[in-house]
Amino acid sequence: MITDLTGAQWFKSSHSGAQQECVEIAWLAAGHVGVRDSKNPAGLALVFTPAEWDAFTTGVQDGEFNRPD
């Protein structure tokens, strides 16, 4: 999918604090969500559909992506 990110308003989580290694997200048209590396804002960005974003955030909340002990 090619999405025009011109004018997207990117932001970091309030939990990021002053850390440099963060991702930024942007709410896009049609419910899509953009994600990019805050250290490289001119680099590539991922764009998730609403269903993909919901599945990802649910997985995060459920611990699906936690590192094994």
Mean pLDDT: 89
Strands of the widest sheet, in order across it, are 1-2-3
Question: What is the SS-derived class?
Answer: alpha+beta
- SSE pattern: EEEH
Helix content: 10-25%
- Biggest sheet details: 3 strands, antiparallel
The best one-word shape is: globular
Total number of beta strands: 3
Q: Any low-confidence stretches, pLDDT <50, length ≥5?
A: none
| Range of strand content | 15-25%
Q: Give the end-to-end Cα distance, rounded to a whole number of Å.
A: 36 Å
- Count, helices: 1
Please characterize this protein's 3D structure:
It is a single chain. The protein has 69 residues and is an alpha+beta fold. The chain has a domain at 23-61. The protein has one helix and three strands; from the N terminus they run E-E-E-H. Strands 1-2-3 form a three-stranded antiparallel β-sheet. Strand 2 (33-37) and strand 3 (45-48) form a beta hairpin. It is globular, with a radius of gyration of 13 Å. The N and C termini lie far apart (36 Å).
